[in-house]
Amino acid sequence: PDPSPTAAATATSTRTATATATDRHSDRHRDSHRDATLSHSHSHRRSDSDNNRLATLAMAFSRAGQPAPALLDALAAEAAPRLREFSTHELANLAAAFATAGHAAPALLDEIAIEAAPRLHEFDSEQLRITAR
User: Fold this and answer.
1) What is the rounded distance in angstroms from the CA atom of residue 15 to the CA atom of residue 10?
2) pLDDT for 79
3) What is the mean pLDDT of residues 100-110?
4) Backbone dihedral angles phi then psi of residue 124, each to the nearest 5 degrees
5) Which helix H or strand E contains 118, and what residues bound it?
6) Are the C-beta atoms of 127 and 96 separated by less than 8 Å?
């Protein structure tokens, strides 16, 4: 017994609808995953860029020879809670900036030391020299 043309058409239509729904779900999942990956990547890059700007700004003001205690205090407050996100280069520059400026920031420098100690193997010789000033 052959299925009726109507039953065969219904079965084909059901398979097509199921395949289309599955494809749409896969597309949405893929797009959602891509968007989440791009978002994380973008926020991580933005954070890295912000960390670099903080370290660079601190270094620039320390070299200018113009006292800027309020700025350095603000930079210390901004950097301290996220030092784990700083590269070794940024940690070295931040520590050197405060040392060069002669600006007392013992809490920040203690936090930099805590963060840098387990990562010493990541520092190159120039970063170690800068940090040890």
Assistant:
1) 9
2) 95
3) 93
4) -85, 175
5) none
6) no
CA dist., res. 107 & res. 84, Å (int)? 15
Q: What does the block give as tokens for 53?
A: 């700007």
Asked whether the beta carbons of 85 and 48 are under 8 A apart, the reply is yes
Alpha helices in the chain (DSSP H): 5-64, 69-79, 88-101, 106-116, 125-131
Cβ burial, residue 99 (10 Å; 0-12/13-18/19+): middle
- Paired tokens of 14: 């059901």
Among 40, 117, 107, smallest CA distance to 78 is for 107
Name the residue type at position 13.
S
Q: Which of 99, 87, 98 is nearest to 127 (CA)?
A: 87
Please identify which residue in the block is written with the tokens 């060069």.
Answer: 100
Opening angle at CA 64, ends 60 and 67, nearest 5 = 105
Express each pLDDT in 66-85 by its tens digit.
889 999 999 999 999 999 99
CA 29 to chain centroid? 24
